[in-house]
Design a protein that fits this description.
Elements lengths: L1 H21 L1 E2 L2 E2 L1 H25 L6 H4 L4 H32 L1
Antiparallel strand pairs: 1-2
Helix pairs in contact: 1-2, 2-4
Amino acid sequence: MFTTLAVLAALFFVAHVYLLFTSFGKSGFQKQKYLWSHITLWITGGIACLIAILFAGKSVSGVIDVFDTPGKASLLIVIALVLSAVAHSIVKLLVLPKYQRA
């Protein structure tokens, strides 16, 4: 179960990166891909939280054992949402203005 969830989280994160970078192309900014890049990041955070809830304190991984309470595990979702907000701010304030001028 742990391996399945870890692989699933990794796949969603790879999908996030792929969608994020392919949102900007020769055909212009693709809003739907950009939205899905954020959604896949949120799903990754949710899966990471689930992994922490299920496996923290069971010596599966030293990193996972750090998130040994539900509050600490929920921080993984918060981190995903904060990363999403920071990335969105960078894109909105720095990337899109330069992208639209070109």
